[in-house]
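Hi team,

Filling in the usual template for the complex we talked about on Friday. All components are listed, including any nucleic acid strands or ligand strings, so the model treats them as one assembly.

SUBMITTER: L.P.
PURPOSE: interface mapping
COMPONENTS: two
RESIDUES: 712
SEQUENCES:
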Amino acid sequence: MKAKSDYKKADIWLAFWLIIPTLIAIGITAFYPLGQTIYDSFFKWSLRPGFQREFVGFQNYINLFQDARFLNSLWNTIYFTFFSVLIEFLLGLVTALILNAEFRLRGLVRAAVLIPWAIPTAVSSQMWKWMYNDQYGVISLMLYNLGIIEQGTPILGTPGLAMAGIIAVDVWKTTPFVALLLLAGLQIIPNELYEAARIDGASMWKQFTSITLPVLRPTIGVTLIFRTLDALRVFDVVYIMTQGSVGTETLAVYNRSLLMDNIFSPRGLFGYGSALSVVIFLIIGIFTVIYMRSLNIKLD
Amino acid sequence: MKKFVVLFALFTMVMSLFSITITMTAGAVGKELEVLNEQVAMFMEEYPEIEVRVLPMPNSATDRHDLYVTYLASGTPDPDVLMLDVIWPAEFAPFLVDLTNDYDYFELDKFFPGTVASNTVEGQLVAVPWFTDAGILYYRKDLLEKYGYEVPETWDDLYTAAKDISEMEGINGFVWQGARYEGLTCNVMEFFHSFGGEIMKDGKVVVDDPKYYENNIAAITFMDKLIEDGVSPRGVTTYMEEEGRRVFQNGDAVFMRNWPYAWSLANSPESPVAGKVGITVLPKGPGPDGRNSATLGGWNLGINANSSPAEIEASKKLIKFLTSHEQQVYKAVNAGQTPTMIEAYNDPRTIEANDFYADLLDVFLNAEPRPISPIYNEISYQIQTAVHQVLTQQKDPKQAIDELARNLKSLE
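RESULT (copied from the run log):
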């Protein structure tokens, strides 16, 4: 913070008034629902008419951590996040380095790579679900021919395999996005740096670790935050392909079930669902802070 | 000119004082929506003072449920007439108009008693049955004949025929709905009931009651055996209605458990098995407790309690019209949707269009409802999960039944 501002007082007031509408909009759309959810999470209640709201303190949170379904979905979410982000990052980096090189029709290839990312997740999930079909699915056939699975194995109905199948869809869909972000970071590295390194006799690997990676670090940080936050709240691909069966239920899928399927339940699960929403929010918040700290990213 | 416009505006204003607009939600599977639009046009001709707007919904029942949750929780007065799945009335009852006093108005004595019962919550009638559904067995007439098999009467008959024919033809034996979703609960009910088992009775959990315990385990073991022995493809653990129907309609299965809607599709001109398909009741389980059982499905019409009194009156007229004998026959003939009024099955027009109805009247009459409870969703989730874990080799049948009993009791 600078002690003395260069701006005139009138300018500061103008800026203040200009920013007010934005703050109000954010307040209504982000902070009010968040506050309401946190408030609801301390009650046992449902939207069923005549249901008596009952204050239960932290009971919902205590119950949550004794709920096997919650613990399973927490583990599934972390598993999904770890593997999908890791694979997407590595593949995306390789793709970005390739796309950064000079070759013919580079513009066309760059655009073509983005196609999976442009398809709505609901559509691609359904598409992959058909490709995973045990009898008519093309991927099932390929895996069978390669000797990886037995004939007639339902990929999305086999514990373990189902989650791998879902991660594959996410990787297919999101690698282009990661590649695009990293490519943008690569393009700001001046070519002179590499030329100088070559003159000094640095190997390709040395150039990569000493020039590319350090300069790319902020971009990598932003990319990982984006992807991790997205992966932690993964919903559509899991819900469409398996409805969360055979060990694929994630936190968001469980949350939907609590808040939509059981919203009018006389057992008062709305507060419980709100508590789960708050926990998801906290988990995502913690991850963000860890990333920002470890990668030294500043938001201003 | 100006005068004319003013006059016209005045005229529409006066007319709107006497006319009323109501909205109704509707499905759009197959020819459903098209036929409903024709019916609504007929209704508006008969009642010119009422205007009906039809609002199509998503195909999946779960998505429809989400949609209704949003409508009802927000307290909006629209839509007025709600198309409700047979398992929803208990959950949505507080949001629906009490129709108990209109019992005679809708002539509910003429309906299948089971369909009326499924709309009665704590003695209150909250919706009127519109069309019904029940699980039935589809089989390949040509293949049974070719290998000299009778239409199966027991699950063991089906097992033998399916295993034998599927091995010789190199196709699947028996496809059903085994994905973990509401459809699995329907299938589970049929297996359990036909083996003489039971999950809930009069609102009490009886899944581990000595009277039913062994039969429940036998039923779930049999389901697992179908998959283990290759009679059903391992993929049934991911199948919903349409996945199984595609396999069967492609000529790749000997038997299929499905709802009546698949009949007209399996026999459509582009279907490879057209004319080769037979239809019958689902088989009996073994032993003295074995019986034929079909799970009751179907859709009902209820009225949004937030609608104005005038809209509620108009909605009642629309529901009476749509559930009348004449319109049920029209729907059966044109959309293939199964009537809820018993007399509609004796109508020559129905018989001519759907000759298999007569054989199945008994099935529809005796279709068994799923548990009626305001927490039905949680009950069904527990049932689906327990059985699906057995089918995907994560638990053994006894373990699954014991756990199901514990989980269901913790909901009580």
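MY TAKE: The longest strand of chain B covers residues 127-134. DSSP finds 17 helices and 14 strands in chain B.

Thanks, L.
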